[in-house]
Amino acid sequence: MNTKYVTSISELDNLVGLAPKAREMMETVTELFPFRSNEYYLSLIDWKDGHDPIKRIVIPDSRELNTGGSADPSCEKDYTKKPGLQHKYNQTGLLLLTDVCGGICRFCFRKRLFMSCERETVKDVSDNIEYIREHKEITNVLLTGGDPLTLETRQLESVLRQLREIEHVNIIRIGSKMLAYNPYRILNDQNLLYILSRYSTPEKRIYLMAHFNHPRELTDVSREAAEALRKAGVMVVSQTPILKGINDDHETLTTLFRQLSFAGISPYYVFQCRPTTGNQFFQVPVEQSYEVLQKSWQACSGLAKRARFVMSHATGKIEMVGKTAEHVFMRYHQAADSANIGKFMVFKSNPVARWFDDYRHALTDFEPKKFWML
Predict the structure, then answer these.
(1) What is the DSSP string of 330-370?
(2) Cα 182 from Cα 171, distance rounded (Å)
């Protein structure tokens, strides 16, 4: 299968044939938000369907130009200890290895990496490795970017080898959408599978944090690649934000979770879509997201509904755990301030809230009963 990358609207036009107005619109969008995909992933799109969810994931849309949002909604800059290294949670170090992806999701929360001339990734990670070596509380390291599987295998091997030389690093996670975007990256590189098997041991596993947003991304080829990873000793889990027009209906989510679990891929997180610049039209109100998720789980086994519904807020991962007609209930699943982990919060219901701050900012000195923290 040809997996040639497509990085301009003119290339896309040559491949699929675009209406002149659509091409003009897309070129305008890409002046701000770049485009990248490949022939495999584009082949999953039904171009006759104006509401095709795969198209919505990767093809530029004029609504991205609506104002609002933040380039860094989770304030990652506040937790950046060195260029390319974040340390927000005590046990977790995060390495930004690249600013290249197999495709650019239109709702990407880190799209600033593709837009800005200011680089946040580094090629030489030696200083960052030394930081991790000195901070013995770090038990797991997340390799991300961009997508680490866009790196040459020898570059990825170098990072894995250096991390495995650090005794207190027990888990290495690789954040990647390559199982969806280009599973041939895995199937066609036996050296990659060998290296992963070498550094994923029974005592210290490598986890691939896959990103499946819609059931149609989980193709036979994706399943084959996931199985190859498992045979190499890599644990495969998946996460997705809830996205308007892509997976914000319970039938789609049910199918996604069930098919993932059937394939042995554990659902890990369901995210509230972050309020990143250009993401507004992908966002679903928090309480609606929660209700859709709960309804989807009614048709799922326990293995298919192990994910947690969270907001990756600047202060931590905030899990929504319940709601009534008048209140919503949240807790800190993870927190930058470890003292907040497990803290329980109760807010007045806000059906239009799209982010945690929409609940917090609704509070006033005259309405103390809108919020409790236990």
Answers:
(1) EEEEEESSGGGTT-EEEEE--TT--SHHHHHTT--TT-GGG
(2) 24
Count of C-beta atoms within a 10 Å radius of residue 77: 11
CB burial readout 177-207, b (16+ within 10 A) else e: bbbbbbbbbbbebeebbebbeebbeeebbbb
Please list the alpha-helical segments (H only) found in the chain.
9-16, 20-30, 39-42, 53-58, 112-115, 126-134, 153-164, 178-181, 184-187, 190-199, 220-231, 250-262, 286-297, 356-360
For 26-38, what is each residue's pLDDT tens digit? 999 999 999 999 9
Picking from 125, 228, 108, 111, the residue whose alpha carbon sits closest to that of residue 177 is 108
Provide the CB-side half-sphere exposure for 22 (13 A, CA).
12
The amino acid at 5 = Y
Of residues 64, 68, 65, the one with CA closest to residue 358: 68
In this predicted structure, what is the pLDDT of residue 117? 59
List Cα–Cα distances, 365 to 22, 41, 218, 362, in angstroms: 50, 51, 49, 10
What letter does residue 274 receive in the DSSP assignment? P
Would you state the pLDDT for residue 115? Answer: 84
Distance between CA atoms of residues 286 and 328, nearest Å: 10
**Contact call for residues 331 and 343 (beta carbons, < 8 A):** yes
C-beta of residue 146 within 8 angstroms of C-beta of residue 104: no
Worst-scoring range by mean pLDDT, 111-115, 239-243, 362-366? 362-366
For residue range 302-329, list pLDDT tens digits in order. Answer: 999 999 999 999 999 999 999 999 999 9
* Token pair belonging to 284: 């679903």
